[in-house]
């Protein structure tokens, strides 16, 4: 790895860098080395720059650049700059992608590997993929299949809560 990746690891900040594939394991205390290893393996097969936010994972990437954590500003900045975002399936990462017009690839944590306490990320992935808001991959081959998609952008119109109209009406009548 060059000096650039060392600086990223030491500083934990992304400044003015165009990251084409960004993967995040989120902030869960559970190890997610399975995802980190898979993305690291993927990085050998693609010509794009890959950055992995590894969190509490024990595996240290040998091929991709990585950071332990990103502050919220740099996290969002990196999502905006990435062509592809791969997330663990945490709802916060999903919402951040959708809010920024990105259709992520969800690589869900699985209970059977001790990556989480249950399989809610699998359920979330199934639900949002049905709605066209994400892709889902569980291994390297499925990730490679998802990367063949040319459409990682979405237009998601936030719907107002029904109470919004009631509050607006109330204020207008004051």
Outline of the structure:
The protein has 174 residues and is α/β, with parallel strands linked by helices. It has a single domain, classed as Glycogen Phosphorylase B (Rossmann fold, 3-Layer(aba) Sandwich), CATH 3.40.50.
How would you characterize the overall build of this protein?
- The longest helix is centred in the first third of the chain and has 13 residues, at 33-45.
- This protein is α/β, with parallel strands linked by helices.
- The relative contact order is 0.15.
- The protein is built from seven helices and six strands; from the N terminus they run H-E-H-E-E-H-E-H-E-H-E-H-H.
- Strands 3-2-1-4-5-6 form a six-stranded parallel sheet, with helices on both faces.
- Helices cover 41% and strands 11% of the residues.
- It has one domain (18-172): Glycogen Phosphorylase B (Rossmann fold).
Chain-wise SSE layout:
Blueprint lengths: L2 H9 L9 E4 L8 H13 L4 E4 L11 E3 L4 H10 L2 E4 L3 H9 L5 E2 L13 H11 L4 E2 L3 H8 L14 H11 L2
User: What is the terminal-to-terminal distance?
Assistant: 63 Å
Q: Which whole number gives the mean pLDDT? A: 82
CATH homologous group name: Glycogen Phosphorylase B
- Beta-strand content estimate: 5-15%
Residues in helices, as a percent range: 40-55%
Q: Which fold name corresponds to the CATH topology?
A: Rossmann fold
Number of domains: 1
Query: How many distinct helices?
Result: 7
User: What would you report as the Rg, rounded to the nearest angstrom?
Assistant: 18 Å
Q: Largest sheet, order of strands side by side?
A: 3-2-1-4-5-6
Q: Main beta sheet: strand number and arrangement?
A: 6 strands, parallel
The dominant shape is globular
User: How many β-strand runs?
Assistant: 6
- Oligomer classification: single chain
- What order do the SSEs take from the amino end to the carboxyl end, as H and E? HEHEEHEHEHEHH
Which class do the helix and strand fractions yield?
alpha/beta
